[in-house]
Design a protein that fits this description.
With about 260 residues, the chain is mostly helical. Helix 2 runs antiparallel to helix 5 and helix 9 crosses helix 10. The chain starts with a helix and ends in a 17-residue tail after the last helix. The radius of gyration is 33 Å and the shape is flat.
Length: about 260
Amino acid sequence: PDDAEQVRLIRFLRLLRLARLLRIMKMKSLMSSLEELVEGNQSIQFLLGLSKLLGTLFFMTHWAACIWWAVGTKERTDESWVDPFKELYTSVEERYVWSMYFTLTTMTTVGFGDIHPVNLDEACFALILLPVASVLFATLMGNLTDLITNLNERERQRQKKKRMLSHYMAWRGVTPRLRSQIRQCFLYMWDTKEDFEKYESEVKAQLPAVLKEELCLQIYGKVLQQAPFLRWMKPYPVCMRKLAAMLSTDFLEPGDFVFKVD
């Protein structure tokens, strides 16, 4: 009986270990999916970055407010900044708000002067808080500026390309009709490619043959399946993948030749 119980216990522990491994694998898969979602959405990246900055600011101001209140309520004979607030505000929430008010205004501005150090300990704390808060707030503002800059980076690049194209055509003295056609062509290509043309070529060049064929089939598969003269290839997915890997994207204007036989 003892041996049988030991065997059952060992099996139970193995099942627990297996369940834990499965849970870890599911968590890794979930984290990978969330990471892909965040990396592919610029708005989510901005919101997460902004939340991180606000969380850091709240964390620092919270602890600074707690220390500021502790310094003010320290037993001593002289006056303290807390004295006018002890009788007016008796709840912990109200006192916490006033402490947060002082630290937040000190860390983000120079303070309004309505709450200020009264004794030596409070002045020492304020002298330590001011330089630390200045560096922290400057860092947070720099990170916030980077977030906003990255959020509008694509639009700035688009406007830069438009200006360069307009300056070039003005420099070359292009006629208004031709200028409009060229501009519309470039706008369509920029909207379609989204600046991924060179990067897509690099990705295809670095991928293994199998993954490259799968990617090209994902990109061009619908076009190939809709072509009437390629219907005979539908039962042969290997041929479709090989053909898709040989394709590339090109843009043509009315009057261009797709096939030309001399």
